[in-house]
Amino acid sequence: MASKKIIYLAIIYAVLAAVFYGFSAPFSKLLLDKISPYLLSSLLYFGAGIGMTAIVLINKNQQTSLRHEKFGKADVKYMVIMVILDIIAPISLMLGLTSTNASTASLLNNFEIVFTALIAMFFFKEVIGRKMWAAIILIISAGGLLAFQDFTGIQISYGSLFVIFASLAWGFENNCTRMLAKGNPLHVVMIKGFGSGLGSLIIAIALGLTSAIWYYVILAMILGFFSYGLSLYFYISAQRHLGAARTSAYYAMAPFVGAIFSFAILGEAITLIFIIAFSIMVIGAYLAIKENNNHLNV
């Protein structure tokens, strides 16, 4: 059994994973004033891929597992689909961030829980319990509140729809990535980083949207390293000692951390609708975590 010191360290890792991913939305929102959504998506993933490669090169244990844990031909199709989805999702998220608040986008990331669960049910025949169904209903309800800019005129926020579409793509991607679970997750994120980064870069070049000042490019890659790369690294490290359910409980803080960062960094207004949606999302996320715990204890 792991010592208390190791458990506490694992909890710190899980919280850091949530915090690092949480500040991706507000900082991406700032960078979108200087970099196109397509180029920014590319740089975020390149930052993650390069960062993870550096960790593997520094860590001798990772080098050993890289030589021993190899993917087969059957895994190639899942890698290709994973990379394509990881091109679509961040671009959709960045496009959404250009026309909606980062705090709203952060909360709408909870839709990833909904889509991941529903896709697992329809395509992989997983059973969804009552708590997860309740969580899905609550998250969708809160998302409905956030998707409307003006209830008097029933004006839909198209930025919110882009964010929800990004969550749908990541929901498919989560189910696809789990088919590669036999491999080292750090090596999977290296494939994600370089493959998706290159794909988004090709799109940016085709659209003629690659212009950016060099130091903003570096900042974007640093953000990608922390929010997309190091976040996953800490998540994996925490999982080794806390287990999947307890780690996911801490990581579920990420959308709410993102919303708080958005208020602090961007000075976004806190509306009554947002407070109501925030509260509903908290309950939904809690029920989703309880469902995961119950599932793992069966």
Give a short overview.
The protein is an all-alpha fold and 298 residues long.
Mean pLDDT, nearest integer?
Answer: 84
**Main β-sheet: number of strands, strand sense, barrel status?**
2 strands, antiparallel
Low-pLDDT regions:
none
Summing up helix and strand content along with how strands pair, one would put the structural category as: mainly alpha
Estimate the helix proportion, in percent.
Answer: over 70%
Overall 3D geometry?
globular
- Overall number of domains: 1
Give the count of helical stretches: 13
Strand order of the largest sheet: 1-2
In total, the number of strands is 2
Run of helices and strands: HHHHHHHHEEHHHHH
The percentage of residues in β strands lies in under 5%
Rg computed from alpha carbons, rounded to a whole number of angstroms: 19 Å
What are the salient characteristics of this protein?
298 residues, mainly alpha, 81% helix
Question: In terms of topology, how is this protein built?
Answer:
Layout: H1 4-22, H2 24-31, H3 37-58, H4 60-68, H5 73-97, H6 102-108, H7 111-124, H8 130-147, E1 148-150, E2 155-156, H9 158-177, H10 185-206, H11 214-251, H12 254-266, H13 272-297
Antiparallel strand pairs: 1-2
Helix pairs in contact: 1-11, 1-12, 2-11, 2-12, 3-4, 3-5, 3-10, 3-11, 5-9, 5-10, 6-12, 7-8, 7-9, 8-13, 10-11, 11-13
